[in-house]
């Protein structure tokens, strides 16, 4: 089993897109649809990385991120914010809240996979170290998602 990643988004098709592409790369992906559910999954499943949307019901991504970063037990879990909130103020709030990376929608699955690999290799975005190549034919885009590709939900 690969490294465990929590994908959090209230849009099911986005969660599926993230889940399928990361599972294809060998990662174990668990999912949540709200910030509150994400906190519960973090406590129960101990993911090594979180990919989280901002705009969600119950508790938004910024609120969940703040709680995660204030708790010593979860503060070191890397978080990629994956959101449509692309204004400078939103990106700044993400960085200020403790996001490790901020990726805006629509997004390229190849870019997300590269970021995930970079985080797991302990690399920074300064270009040092190995460069990961992800072939477009090795990823699925939103138009390619079919329910038959989906493993049963955990």
Please tell me about this protein's structure.
By secondary structure, the protein is α/β, with parallel strands linked by helices. It has a single domain, classed as Rossmann fold (3-Layer(aba) Sandwich). It is 36% helix and 15% strand. The protein contains five helices and five strands, in the order βαβαβαβαβα. The chain has helices at residues 12-24, 35-45, 61-70, 88-97, 109-120, and strands at 4-8, 28-32, 49-52, 79-83, 101-104. The chain has a five-stranded parallel β-sheet, sandwiched between helices. Strand 3, helix 3 and strand 4 form a beta-alpha-beta unit. It is globular.
Strand order of the largest sheet: 2-1-3-4-5
- Briefly note the structural class of the backbone: alpha/beta
Major beta sheet summary: 5 strands, parallel
CATH homologous superfamily?
Answer: Response regulator
Mean pLDDT: 83
Topology order in helix (H) and strand (E) letters: EHEHEHEHEH
Secondary-structure arrangement, i.e. CATH architecture? 3-Layer(aba) Sandwich
Shape verdict: globular
Rounded to an integer in angstroms, the radius of gyration calculated over CA atoms is 15 Å
Number of E-state strands: 5
CATH class: Alpha Beta
The figure for the number of domains is 1
Q: What share of the residues lie within helices? A: 25-40%
Residue runs with pLDDT of under 50 for 5 or more positions: 123-135
Counted by DSSP, the helix tally is 5
Give the termini separation: 14 Å
């Amino acid at each position: 089993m690969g490294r465990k990643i929590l994908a959090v988004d209230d849009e099911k098709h986005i969660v599926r897109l993230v889940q399928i592409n990361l599972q294809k790369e060998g990662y174990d992906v668990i999912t949540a649809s709200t910030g509150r559910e994400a906190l519960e999954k973090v406590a129960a499943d101990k993911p090594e990385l979180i990919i989280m949307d901002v705009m969600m019901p119950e508790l938004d991504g910024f609120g969940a991120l703040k709680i995660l970063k204030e708790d010593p037990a979860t503060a070191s879990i890397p978080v990629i914010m994956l959101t449509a909130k692309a204004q400078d103020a939103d990106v700044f709030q993400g960085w200020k809240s403790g996001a490790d990376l901020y990726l805006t929608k629509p997004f390229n699955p190849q870019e997300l996979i590269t970021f995930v690999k970079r985080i797991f290799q302990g690399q920074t975005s300064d270009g040092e170290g190995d460069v990961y190549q992800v072939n477009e034919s090795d990823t699925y885009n939103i138009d390619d998602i079919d329910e038959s590709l989906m493993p049963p939900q955990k």
